[in-house]
C-alpha cells in the first residue's frame, strides 16, 4: 500500500493536465460520432484511429483511445432511440424502450436517460477497476509459465464458447490467430518461420494491418455488399419527424434516481461480465434489461417506453468498459475486442499488459485510471451539450461514410511505416475478416488468438524446457489443474451438452405441429 499511494498520487497529478483533458474530450466526441453512425461503433473507431496515436505520448494516446471507447459505447444508443436502428449491437436492448419513448414525443428525455445511465455504470466499473487491478496483478506475479499457459488456454476456450455461435468455429478462429502470430523469427533460436524470404515478415505481422483489416475494413466491405442488396433508406424526414417534438422532455432528478436500484444492479451485472473474457457488451445489456424487468414493479410496461428499461441497458453495457480492463492490465488477457485493440496500442507504445505492468509502469497505469474518471465527466458534459447535434449525424448515408472509413484505414496503416507491403497486408486481412463474417467464424477469437499467441508460445516453451519436455507439468500446479478443468468443462458444456436442448426443442415443435 505504501508503494501504491505515491504512484497513484503522481499518476493522478499527471492526468490532470490541460493537454490530457483535451485528448480525452476529442476522443469522447469522436467515439460518440462513430457510435451514432450505424454499422461503425467504438471498435471500428479504435481500430481506425489507433495509428494516429503513434505520435502521442503514451498517456495521451491511451487517454484518447479510452475516451473513444466510452463515447462509442453510449453513442450507439442515439440511433436506436431515434429511428430504432442501433448503432452498436448492445444498443438493440436500448431500442426496446428508447424508440417507443421517442414515438411518444420524448426523444430528448430518452437520450438524456441513456447518457446519464451510461456515465453512472461506467464510473462504477472504473472504481472497481482501480480497486482490483493491483491486487489481482500482485497475485498473478506468483504465477509461472505453467499457470499462464493454462490461463491463456482457458481464455481461448471461454472466448470461443461465448463469443460465437459455434465452439468449433471459435476454436478454429483462435487457432488461426495463434498460427499467424508465429510468423517471423523464432523467439528462442531466431530461425525464420513462414517468412518466405520476405524481409518485412522477419518481425512478424504488424498489429495495425491485422487489427484494422479484420475489424474495421472487413466490416466496411461486408456492409458495402449488404448495401447493394438492400439500399439504405433516406433518414432525413424520419429524423426530422422525431426531433421536432413539442412535449415535455425534462428528466427530473427524482425521476432518474428514483430507480437507483436498477442502475446499481445493472452496473454490477456489467462489471461482472466485463471481468470475464469473451462474454461481451451485448450480453450485459440484455441481462441488465431482463433482470430489471423481473425486479421492477413496472416490469409489465417494459417495451412501451419505460425510462427504467433504458437505464437498465445503458448502465449494464457501459459498466463493461472499465471492468474489461481488469484482466487486460492484471493478466494481459483482453476482456473483449475493444480491450484487445487497447492491448495493441499499449504494445505500440512499449508497454506490455500483464502482471508486471503496474510494477514497471505504475505511474502510467494510475494516470490512465485518473483519465478514465475524467473521461466520464467529459462524456457527461459533451454528451449532454450535443444531444441535438448527434441526431444530425444519423442522417449521413452509409454511401458517404464508408468510403471515408476505407480511406482512413489505408492512411492509418501506410503513414506510420511508409510501406505498401503493410497496405497489402491490410487488404488481405480485410478479405479474411469479410469471409470469416460471412461464414460464421468469430472475429473476436481471431484477434485475441493473434494478440495472445506470442505470449502463449513463449510460456509454453518455457514450461516445456524447464521440465525436460514433460507436458504433464501442466497438471502439477493446483492453479493449472483448476484452469485445465475449467477448459475441459467449457469444451464439454458448449461443444456437446449444448446440442441436446436444440434437439429437444425441435422434437417439441414437431409434436405441437402434429
What do these coordinates show?
By secondary structure, the protein is mainly alpha-helical. The chain has one domain (4-499). The protein is built from 25 helices and two strands. The protein has a two-stranded antiparallel sheet. Strand 1 (184-185) and strand 2 form a beta hairpin. Helix 7 (107-140) runs parallel beside helix 15 (307-323) and helix 9 crosses helix 23 (443-466). The termini are far apart. Residues 500-514 have low confidence and may be disordered.
Average pLDDT level: 78
Strand order within the widest beta sheet: 1-2
Number of helices: 25
Tell me the span between the first and last alpha carbons: 69 Å
Our count of domains comes out at: 1
Strand proportion, as a percent range, falls in under 5%
Strand-and-helix sequence, N→C? HHHHHHHHHEEHHHHHHHHHHHHHHHH
Number of strands: 2
Level of helix content?
over 70%
What value does the Rg take, in angstroms?
23 Å
**Uncertain stretches of 5 or more adjacent residues:** 500-514
Q: Shape, please?
A: globular
Helix vs. strand class: mainly alpha
**Assembly state:** single chain
Short description:
With about 525 residues, the protein is mostly helical. It has 25 helices and two strands.
Amino acid at each position: 500500500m505504501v508503494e501504491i499511494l505515491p504512484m497513484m498520487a503522481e499518476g493522478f497529478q499527471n492526468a490532470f493536465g490541460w493537454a490530457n483533458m483535451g485528448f480525452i474530450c476529442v476522443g469522447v466526441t469522436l467515439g460518440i460520432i462513430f457510435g451514432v453512425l450505424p454499422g461503425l461503433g467504438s471498435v471500428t473507431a479504435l481500430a481506425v484511429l489507433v495509428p494516429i496515436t503513434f505520435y502521442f505520448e503514451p498517456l495521451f494516446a491511451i487517454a484518447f483511445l479510452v475516451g473513444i471507447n466510452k463515447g462509442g459505447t453510449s453513442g450507439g444508443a442515439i440511433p436506436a432511440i431515434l429511428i430504432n436502428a442501433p448503432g452498436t449491437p448492445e444498443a438493440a436492448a436500448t431500442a426496446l424502450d428508447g424508440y417507443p419513448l421517442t414515438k411518444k414525443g420524448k426523444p430528448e428525455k430518452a437520450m438524456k436517460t441513456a447518457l446519464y445511465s451510461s456515465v453512472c455504470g461506467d464510473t462504477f466499473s472504473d472504481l472497481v477497476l482501480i480497486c482490483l487491478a493491483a491486487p489481482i496483478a500482485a497475485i498473478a506475479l506468483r504465477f509461472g509459465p505453467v499457470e499462464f499457459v493454462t490461463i491463456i488456454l482457458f481464455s481461448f476456450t471461454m472466448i470461443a464458447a461465448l463469443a460465437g455461435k459455434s465452439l468449433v468455429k471459435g476454436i478454429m478462429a483462435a487457432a488461426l490467430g495463434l498460427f499467424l502470430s508465429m510468423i517471423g523469427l523464432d523467439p528462442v533460436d531466431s530461425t525464420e518461420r513462414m517468412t518466405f524470404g520476405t524481409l518485412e515478415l522477419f518481425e512478424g505481422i504488424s498489429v495495425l494491418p491485422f487489427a484494422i483489416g479484420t475489424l474495421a475494413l472487413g466490416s466496411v466491405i461486408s456492409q458495402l455488399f449488404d448495401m447493394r442488396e438492400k439500399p439504405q433508406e433516406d433518414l432525413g424526414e424520419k429524423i426530422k419527424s422525431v426531433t421536432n417534438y413539442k412535449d415535455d422532455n425534462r428528466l427530473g432528478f427524482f425521476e432518474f434516481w428514483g430507480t437507483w436500484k436498477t442502475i446499481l444492479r445493472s452496473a454490477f451485472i456489467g462489471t461482472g461480465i466485463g471481468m470475464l473474457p469473451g462474454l461481451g457488451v451485448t450480453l450485459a445489456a440484455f441481462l441488465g434489461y431482463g433482470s430489471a424487468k423481473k425486479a421492477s414493479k413496472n416490469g409489465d410496461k417494459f417495451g412501451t417506453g419505460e425510462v427504467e428499461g433504458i437505464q437498465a441497458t445503458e448502465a449494464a453495457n457501459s459498466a463493461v468498459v472499465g471492468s474489461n480492463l481488469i484482466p487486460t492490465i492484471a493478466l494481459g488477457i483482453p476482456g473483449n475486442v475493444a480491450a484487445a485493440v487497447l492491448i495493441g496500442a499499449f504494445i505500440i507504445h512499449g508497454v506490455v499488459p500483464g502482471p508486471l505492468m503496474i510494477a514497471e509502469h505504475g505511474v502510467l497505469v494510475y494516470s490512465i485510471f485518473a483519465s478514465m474518471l475524467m473521461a466520464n465527466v467529459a462524456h457527461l458534459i459533451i454528451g449532454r451539450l450535443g444531444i441535438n447535434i448527434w441526431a444530425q449525424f444519423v442522417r449521413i448515408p452509409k454511401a458517404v461514410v464508408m468510403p471515408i472509413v476505407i480511406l482512413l484505414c489505408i492512411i492509418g496503416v501506410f503513414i506510420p511505416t511508409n510501406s505498401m507491403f503493410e497496405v497489402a497486408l491490410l487488404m488481405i486481412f480485410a478479405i479474411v475478416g469479410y469471409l470469416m463474417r460471412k461464414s460464421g467464424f468469430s472475429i473476436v477469437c481471431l484477434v485475441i488468438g493473434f494478440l495472445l499467441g506470442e505470449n502463449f508460445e513463449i510460456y509454453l516453451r518455457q514450461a516445456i524446457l524447464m521440465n525436460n519436455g514433460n507436458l504433464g507439468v501442466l497438471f502439477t500446479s493446483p492453479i493449472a489443474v483448476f484452469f485445465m478443468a475449467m477448459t475441459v468443462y467449457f469444451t464439454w458444456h458448449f461443444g456437446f451438452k449444448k446440442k441436446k436442448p436444440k434437439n429437444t426443442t425441435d422434437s417439441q415443435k414437431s409434436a405441437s405441429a402434429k
